Amino acid sequence: MAWLVTGGCGFIGRNLVHDLVQDDEGPIRILDNLSIGRRADLEAVADIEESGTFEVGSMSTLDDDTVQLVPGDVRDEAALRRAADGADVIVHLAAQAGVPKSVDDPRYDCNTNVLGTLNALEAARHHDVDRFVFASSAAPLGE
Q: How far is it, in rounded angstroms, from Cα 134 to Cα 36?
């Protein structure tokens, strides 16, 4: 199976990528804006092939052991659709989870979390992706 993981450089994403690589689950493409996690964090769990956002082709062209990092943002609908091309599974982990930032800039929080999720769902619908996994942190619970 071909996997698209949004927010794959974050803590949960890195651990998921690590497990997918260990289990030889197929090619993995990671779309991440690198605002929290870094390429070096991801390199600790997998050998990374980097691709520019506008150079992304279908995942069907990737070898089974490829882990590809695509710098991009879930708020960019077109980039997310390009990244999802050929995916069998989308795991949506990208989010703005910091409570202080959500209070300081609620519009950014909404655009990232609500519209970013809608963009990921629309990318799945556009490419007939059969499996969509969404995960959230405990941040919405507050104290």
A: 19
Query: Which conformational region is residue 34 in: left (phi greater than 0), alpha (psi within -120 to 50 degrees), or beta?
Result: left
**Token pair belonging to 120:** 């990921």
- Distance, CA of 56 to CA of 79 (rounded, Å): 9
- Exposed/middle/buried for 105, CB within 10 Å: 0-12, 13-18, 19+? middle
Q: Over the stretch 64-83, which tens digit does the pLDDT of each residue have?
A: 889 999 999 999 999 999 99
- Residue 112 contacts by C-beta under 8 Å, 6 or more apart in sequence? 74, 75, 94, 95, 96
- Nearest-5° angle of CA 124, CA 131, CA 80? 30
If one counts every other C-beta atom within 10 angstroms of the C-beta of residue 28, the result is 28
pTM of the model: 0.91
